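Workshop exercise sheet. Pairs work together: one partner reads the sequence aloud, the other fills in the structure field after running the prediction. Swap roles for the next sheet.
Pair: D.N. / O.F.
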Amino acid sequence: ARAINRALAARDAAIAVLIAETGGQNALIADSSALPEQLVKDTLASAFGSAGQRCSAARVLFVQSDIADRVIEMLSGAMDELQVGDPTLLETDVGPVIDLEALNVLEQHSTRMQRDARLIKVAPLGPDVAAAGGTFFAPRAFELGSLDQLQREVFGPVLHVIRWHADDLDQVIDSINATGYGLTLGIHSRIDETIERISSRVRAGNCYVNRTTIGAVVGVQPFGGEGLSGTGPKAGGPHYLPRFANERVLTINTTAAGGNASLLTLDA
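Structure field:
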């Protein structure tokens, strides 16, 4: 987005309109009241759907320590059931990443995470993958000590899990805001007060409660972020199309060409 903005500014032409919706270090926060079965299901879809190549994909799962062990165990088991392979087959859950460059970035990140974090699970590759070749990357999950271990968005099927204690919720929100990204946030909680506390403090364009972080619907969830995650207006929202329009004003002085101003004062 910065490169596009600079290129547009350098043109010897009219100033162009740029609406940028970029990526994000998207987090999903789950407290101890979350339903683990729903949390794991939504996390799988959010992190690994479309091979994690959605700008709104969940990159980090913050799970309260009270339920963390159970959630991680369930997540690991669920990842064993993921079908990685040919995306033209109905039984496939995760296809390849977009190109070799993306694959190399993911492999380099995975190597670093295996050194600096704890591996939770690597999903098995389907039997057709080896024969087909291509840019397949097995979905995987790592447990981190803190969000500081991630320097940038990792665009692909990699989930990072971080435990948090009940007294640390504000610090969790602050750490998410401190990344500078502000695209999407997920909340899994059955406590209205907690949902309000998180959603009111986090700086993200879209906040989803007890559902996935992907799949915004035009006209229902206008989509876009702030900070490093883009500019407004939000795509699919009521202010999007007018941003591309030019306003023009017509002003007429009715007294300038011999008009009789007294006629304007007459009763109808």
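Discussion prompt: The first strand starts at residue 27 and ends at 30. What would you look at next?
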